[in-house]
Specification:
Elements: H1 3-8, H2 17-22, H3 28-50, H4 61-70
């Protein structure tokens, strides 16, 4: 597995967020970082879809959040990010 490629584009290495969870060569922190990247990319696709620029893969945010939860990653549900991408 090419970890650098996975960090840039998790979908180029993993078929699903679940696959990240079960990848034994990754540390918990690496898995969380990969899933956070996947979350960001999924939010970007949502924004593009809302702007009628579709063509991306199906929404996987729920899967990403489920795996993050199983990894005990903290998800801030009390504060909404200022943008849909989660940026500032």
């Amino acid at each position: 597995m090419n970890i650098e490629q996975a960090m840039l584009d998790p979908t180029s290495v993993f078929a699903s967020p679940e696959d990240v969870f079960y990848e034994q060569s990754l540390t918990r922190d690496q898995k969380i970082n990969l899933l956070r990247r996947w979350e960001y990319d999924a939010r970007e696709l949502q924004v593009a879809d809302e702007e009628n620029m579709c063509g991306g893969p199906p929404d996987v945010l729920d899967q990403v959040f489920e795996v993050l939860h199983r990894l005990d990653a903290k998800i801030d549900v009390e504060h909404s990010p200022p943008t849909k991408q989660g940026g500032e």
